[in-house]
Amino acid sequence: MPGVADGAHLGLRLWISPLGAGRIFYQDVKGYRVAAGMPRAPLERLSPLFREFEEECRLAGRRLVYFGLAAPALAALDPARGRWHAGDLPVFSLDRWGDDATIPPNIRSQARRARNQGITVRRVAVGEAVPSSLRTCVASWVRDKPLPPLGFVTTPYLFDPWPEQGVFLAEREGEVVGFLVGSRALFPDLWRVDAVGRCGRAPNGCVELLVSEAFRYAAERGQGQATLGMAPLARRAALPALSSSHWMDRVAEIAHEVKLPGYSFAGLEAFKAKFKPDAWHPLYCVSGGGGLSLRDLLAVARVFTGGSLTVYALRSLRWRLGRRRVPF
Fold first, then answer.
1. What is residue 243's predicted lDDT score, i.e. its pLDDT?
2. Structure pTM?
3. Is the link from the previous residue into 48 a cis peptide, with omega within 30 of 0?
4. What is the distance between the alpha carbons of residues 275 and 228, in angstroms, rounded to a whole number?
5. I want to staple 285 with a disulfide (CB 3.0 to 4.6 A). Which of 86, 119, 251, 263 is the partner?
């Protein structure tokens, strides 16, 4: 169970600036390179870092799309580039998660319910023994999903390699009934919950307890802020919209309110909102040069679906028919 740099557990590749400007996580798909989240670099170094990375993409013959850039990074890019407000990031100040008395009442109540049902939470670091019931719990969690798992920053539960920040386990009588993975890979200044899940044997409040304990752990180690990850298509940010793709905004508004088979953007947003974020920050999808096209957005969709929208659609059909194959 070797430890590696944060990001590898998300299935991402890491590009390191030869000139020392910083690092960018990315993944390739059919002629494209999709960068993930914020670069690991000071804001004042973003302009040269982006120029280096874009030249690397050009030499590799790949068109570039940035996915998940926060507003401060946009100042380092040409304002004429196409950009789209892809969703909002809930941000939590961790100073109020170190004490039960300052945790949101609804979360505190749910976490207490799980504790009363005998649930305890512990962190498993790199190199520690992993209970066999973890894999059983994860497999059950995956099978209960209405759609097959996505890729690109959404599969940290594969635990190969083991996340550098460790994994939080919810257990009852020695059996794993829930898990949480966190890292600072996509947003260097934020401790991000990469995945959190529970299997069928877990009582209500298990997820709330996991998040509370993980936030407490991060706070005790000096981390100032955390996030539960982007709420796609959400529009809660108080910051002004910087999107230049108005037709995409209209499509996003419709898609946000429609309950798709097995998935709800509004439902995911509501789940993250119940933890009472202190702020919502907009995240953007930005062209690597010129306007942002439908082809660019399809590339982002392909990287999330493992490379092919058609193949994922067929997998989804088999999944809905009950022929579910867990990816491990």
1. 61
2. 0.92
3. no
4. 9
5. 86
Mean pLDDT of the chain: 90
- The ranges assigned to domains in the chain are 8-90+229-320, 92-227
Pairing of strands 63-70, 32-40: parallel
The token pair at 199 is 């299997």
Report the alpha-carbon distance of residue 289 to residue 278 in Å, rounded: 34
The CATH superfamily holding the domain 92-227 is: Gcn5-related N-acetyltransferase (GNAT) (3.40.630.30)
120 membership: H or E segment, kind and range: strand 120-124
What's 189-250 look like in SS3? CCEEEEEEEECCCCCCCHHHHHHHHHHHHHHHCCCCEEECCCEECCCCCCCCCCCCCHHHHH
pLDDT digits (tens, 9 = 90+) for 85-116: 999 999 999 999 988 889 999 999 999 999 99
